Amino acid sequence: MQQEELEEKVTMLEELIQGFIQRITIVETEMPEFLKGFLNQYKETLDRIAGRIETANKRYDDKKIQQQINELKDVVSRVPKVIGVKNSHHFGAWSKSLIIGIVIVFVITTGSFGTALYLNYQNDRLNEEAYNFWMVRAMYPKTAETIITRLKDDPSAFIAEAEKAMEKQQAIAAAKAVADQAGKDQKTARDNLNKVILAK
Question: CA-to-CA distance for 128 and 139, rounded, in angstroms?
Fold first, then answer.
């Protein structure tokens, strides 16, 4: 059985080789004829191209081209390696407007922020004074009523009197602070004197 299979395979291979040989023979015989036909068909075009190449070669003189190449090399060799370049930049109209706008926005934002901080500080101070007056009203109703009455009758005179009283209180507080500091300095001087006396 194996012998029959082998013979069958050998027969198939022989048939394949025969078919391959026939195709190669066809290619060998028909290919030169195809190439001859191709060359005959495009012979005029190829001749025209060859003629143009020869004309172009004759038009340019090799010596002249070589001379130009040498001149170019000479010029390139004389060019300095580092070339200083001055560069300047100017702002266009749109850029100037943008920068001015940004600066204005920054100034307005900074001013608004500063104003907000100042007003917040003033508001806190006024709230504290209002709270203090509320406490005076609660603790000393007659004094508060006197202040309100005098403010209604003659506000400018009462405010001037109050400012003088405040200046007097500030002067008293400053003098007291100086006196306290002097007392501390005197006490420190006495302590130092006692230490020196005891050290001997």
Answer: 16
